[in-house]
């Protein structure tokens, strides 16, 4: 069963987990990774119903390969999964994080605060008893050392209310533990970057399907961060489409204009269908080559550069390349010859 609730929030599965036997429901943040799966199983083993939440954004790579690991895990546990988009407001967090960035443009602490506030609001709306995550003390250098965990808990409004089952016995007891709702002695005391204890627990819980621990967020990748920083610098107001386009093709900035050059047939087709009013679509003609999309300051100079950028990736050798120029009103063609100077300029301006 899939049901839309509100604000683009979707829930998949039954209303309550069939494992529940005590009339208690908890909300889990479930990425589908090893840690979050083990945390869910720890709580289910105590006879507590669990509803899982998955947050989505254009920056998330957790569903790489077309597999939604959260959905796979929720189905295996036979628990409902609620999907909540982070939305445009999350872009403000990424643009100006109060607690700064990690190695690229990843605002890890501010991100956790943001999603936990949303998760807490959902938990309150359904009358859940408590909220828990798969966080591990000292596993991640920016967001999971003790001070960071305390800041996240405090600023999300969850002081004493956020349970972290994997490291619970190394942290102050939460309200759920103090009340006897959760048996603290059956929770973990895991810390550090090693996943050995989690893997042993996963084996004991018969959890075999979980992705590798690397990555999960494009904001940690310096190449993507460069594109996003450029987008923020040249746009005060953004739509989610602007961000998703950062994942398509090769990107260039030239005299106030943005040029995206496709890498394959699928991307070339996407550039055409994604075009908005005022943007110019370019396509190399007669030879194998890419399409391009020009936005921002559109004029003869930037159109010429966009044509040269597209032609530089075409299989033309030293021959002139015919490029279609479609501004949505009229279609024209332009011939360009790509020499070493143009190739060097295109390479230099690539984001």
CATH architecture of the largest domain: 3-Layer(aba) Sandwich
Estimate what percentage of residues fall within beta strands: 15-25%
Q: Could you say which overall geometry the principal axes of the C-alpha atoms support?
A: elongated
Helix content: 25-40%
CATH superfamily of the largest domain, called what?
Answer: HUPs
What is the class of the largest domain in the CATH system?
Alpha Beta
Instruction: Please state how the strands of the largest beta sheet are arranged side by side.
Output: 1-2-5-4-3-6-7
Termini separation (Å)? Answer: 43 Å
Discrete helix count: 12
Low-pLDDT residue intervals, each spanning 5 or more residues: 1-6, 15-19
Count of distinct structural domains: 2
Number of strands: 13
CATH topology-level name of the largest domain: Rossmann fold
Structural class from helices and strands?
A: alpha/beta
- Along the chain, the helix and strand elements come as EEEHEHEHHEHEHHHHEEHEEHEEH
State the major sheet: 7 strands, mixed
How would you state the average pLDDT, rounded? Answer: 92
Radius of gyration computed on alpha carbons? 24 Å
Could you describe the 3D structure shown?
By secondary structure, the chain is α/β, with parallel strands linked by helices. The chain folds into 2 domains: 2-218, 3-Layer(aba) Sandwich (Rossmann fold); 248-349, no CATH class. Helix content is 34%, strand content 18%. It is built from 12 helices and 13 strands. The strands form 2 sheets. The chain has a 7-stranded mixed β-sheet with strand order 1-2-5-4-3-6-7, with helices on both faces. Strands 8-9-11-10-12-13 form a 6-stranded antiparallel β-sheet, with helices on both faces. A hairpin with a 4-residue loop joins strand 12 (321-326) and strand 13. Helix 1 (34-44) crosses helix 7 and helix 4 packs across helix 5 (146-155). It is elongated and about 75 Å long. The relative contact order is 0.10. The model is unreliable at 1-6 and 15-19 (pLDDT under 50).
């Amino acid at each position: 069963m899939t049901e839309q609730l509100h604000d683009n929030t979707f829930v998949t599965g039954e209303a309550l987990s069939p494992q529940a036997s005590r009339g208690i429901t908890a909300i889990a943040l479930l990425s589908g990774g090893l840690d979050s799966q083990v945390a869910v199983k720890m709580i289910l083993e105590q006879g507590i119903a669990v509803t899982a939440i998955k947050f989505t954004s254009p920056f998330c790579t957790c569903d790489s390969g077309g597999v939604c690991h959260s959905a796979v895990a929720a189905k295996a546990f036979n628990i409902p999964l609620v999907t909540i988009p982070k939305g445009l407001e999350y872009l403000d967090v990424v643009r100006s994080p109060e607690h700064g960035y990690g190695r690229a443009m990843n605002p890890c602490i501010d991100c956790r605060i943001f999603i936990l506030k949303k998760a807490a609001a959902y938990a309150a709306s359904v009358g859940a008893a408590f909220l828990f995550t798969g966080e591990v003390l000292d596993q991640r250098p920016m967001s999971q050392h003790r001070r960071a965990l305390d800041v996240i808990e405090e600023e999300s409004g969850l002081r004493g209310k956020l349970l972290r089952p994997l490291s619970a016995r190394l942290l102050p007891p939460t309200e759920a533990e103090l009340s006897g709702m959760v048996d603290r002695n059956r929770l973990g005391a895991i810390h550090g970057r090693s996943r050995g204890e989690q893997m042993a627990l996963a084996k004991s819980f018969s959890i075999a399907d979980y992705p590798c621990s690397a990555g999960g967020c494009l904001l940690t990748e310096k190449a993507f961060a460069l594109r996003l920083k450029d987008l923020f610098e040249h746009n005060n107001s953004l739509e989610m489409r602007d961000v998703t386009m950062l994942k398509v093709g090769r990107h260039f900035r030239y005299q106030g204009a943005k040029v995206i050059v496709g890498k394959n047939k699928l991307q070339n087709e996407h550039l055409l269908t994604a075009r908005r009013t005022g943007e110019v679509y370019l396509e190399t003609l007669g030879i194998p080559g890419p399409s391009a999309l020009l936005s921002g300051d559109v004029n003869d100079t930037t159109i010429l550069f966009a044509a040269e950028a597209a032609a530089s990736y075409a299989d033309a050798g030293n021959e002139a390349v015919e490029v279609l120029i479609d501004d949505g009103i009229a279609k024209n063609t332009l011939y360009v010859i790509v020499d070493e100077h143009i190739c060097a300029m295109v390479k230099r301006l690539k984001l």
